[in-house]
Amino acid sequence: MRYLLLQIRDSNDPMLLNEQLAFAQTIGCPPKAIKSHSVFNSSLTDQTIQESDLIIIGGSGNYSACDSDPWILQTLNDLKRIYDSKKPLFASCWGFQALARALGGELIHDPHRCELGTLEIQLTEAGRKDRLFSLLKSPFLAQSGHEDHVVKLPPKAILLASTERVPHQAYTFHDRPIYATQFHPELSMKDLLARVRQYPAYLEKMTGMRYEDFCKQTQETPEVAQLIPEFIRQTNGNEDLE
After folding, report:
1. Are 179 and 82 a contacting pair, CB within 8 Å?
2. Residue 10 near residue 41 (C-beta atoms within 8 A)
3. pLDDT tens digits, residue range 195-235?
4. CATH number of 3-236
5. What is the pLDDT of residues 130-179, one digit of tens each?
6. Is there a contact between 227 and 132 (Cβ–Cβ < 8 Å)?
7. How many CA atoms lie within 13 A of 59 on its CB side?
8. Residue 85 to residue 33: CA distance in whole angstroms
9. Domain limits of the chain?
10. Is the preceding omega at residue 139 within 30 degrees of 0, hence cis?
11. Is 91:182 a contact under the CB 8 Å cutoff?
12. Surface-to-core class of residue 74, CB atoms within 10 Å of its CB (0-12 exposed, 13-18 middle, 19+ buried)
């Protein structure tokens, strides 16, 4: 399998390599099997898209998908091209938000509804019936951290999961091998805490908590870690994901 990870992180971001390692651990592949592409440097070529067996998008260190900087608009265009290519795509956090915006959904910045930590997430009726998400119990636990929110899903998107505070937590499409999650199925509790430790101002802003107290509220999330490897298994086996 040839994996392509789109990264929205500065070259000096301490979590740049951590993100790649987190995806590699979740997938069960060596880190070198994942090719990293910085969205700041260049647009994706058609060849790069076609040569990728799975495209992954993760979170962002410092950037909002609500903005309209040139590189963000270019990335939105790249996401449309990936959608049109019908290549398998798994997008979490920033990727979830940017993909929704790229495909006609609506995104807002709303710190008052921020979520950070281990969340309890409910499956929708469609989620309970979905080929991938039906593997999860409802509710299930997942790691999360975001201030931006998708307030309107793209046309044809199918809502799979929700929290009380943020209704749009995961979606897919009937006619595309695409899944997107606001939460981070690629992050273990250890990974989440490593990120929070690197961004103390973010923790203070979102929760007002000390790191030590925040740690006590986090939990392991082994169930949701099944999502990406199972998605790969189904896709690689050419199974019908509808």
Report:
1. no
2. no
3. 999 888 889 888 999 999 999 999 999 999 999 999 999 99
4. 3.40.50.880
5. 999 999 999 999 999 999 999 999 999 999 999 999 999 999 999 999 99
6. yes
7. 27
8. 22
9. 3-236
10. yes
11. no
12. middle
